Backbone:
């Protein structure tokens, strides 16, 4: 696995975990629960979309990095 794929997967993991944090906050504020299967399914979709976006947009943002 090259560095670009690893970076994309890590950004995907960050996106999936951020979604789970938002759902947890919703459950704390609202008095409704979200089924575990729904949480897991949507988190996997968010992970995949975030990883794909990070992989596709990396060339565009690569010039913005400072050394």
Residues:
């Amino acid at each position: 696995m090259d560095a670009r794929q690893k970076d994309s997967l890590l950004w995907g993991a960050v996106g999936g975990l951020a979604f789970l944090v938002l759902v947890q906050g919703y459950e704390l504020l609202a008095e409704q629960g979200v089924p575990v299967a729904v949480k897991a399914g949507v988190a996997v979709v968010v992970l995949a979309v975030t990883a794909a976006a990070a992989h596709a947009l990396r060339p565009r943002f690569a010039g913005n990095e400072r050394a």
